[in-house]
Design goal:
single chain, 116 residues, alpha+beta, Alpha-Beta Plaits, 3 helices
Length: 116
């Protein structure tokens, strides 16, 4: 199945974001999955202040990871990111119904800038 995961990492160090994405990618590849796309969205304000591992965050570094994998692989990635103290939040969704014609309509990962 095709999954898309949006992760929010504590801001301030791009090397941490790269290391977290590398760890998630290695889990996917070791279990026979395929990484389809990775995007770095950068640092943004969180929708609301969030506490994680006894630290309060108002900003976060966003990234998106799109991959094909089984359910067990998806659960392994989620559980690994959940225990990492550098990750503020990570959420994944299954895209489409698994059929090729549905998945071909999904284009690249975009970020729509808000007009102020």
């Amino acid at each position: 199945m095709l999954y898309e995961m949006i992760g929010i990492v504590r801001p301030g160090n791009l090397a941490e974001v790269k290391e977290i994405v590398l760890t998630a990618g290695q889990i996917i590849l070791r279990q026979g999955g395929v990484v389809r796309d990775i995007k770095n969205w950068g640092v943004f304000m969180l929708p609301r202040a969030t506490s994680r591992h006894q630290v309060r965050y108002t900003r976060g570094h966003y990234f998106v990871l799109r991959y094909d994998a089984g359910v067990s692989t998806h659960e392994a990635v989620r559980s690994t990111l959940a225990v990492d103290p550098r990750v503020i939040r990570a959420a994944g969704v299954k895209l489409g119904d698994g059929k090729l014609e549905t998945l071909s309509r999904l284009g690249p990962i975009n970020w729509k800038k808000m007009e102020v």
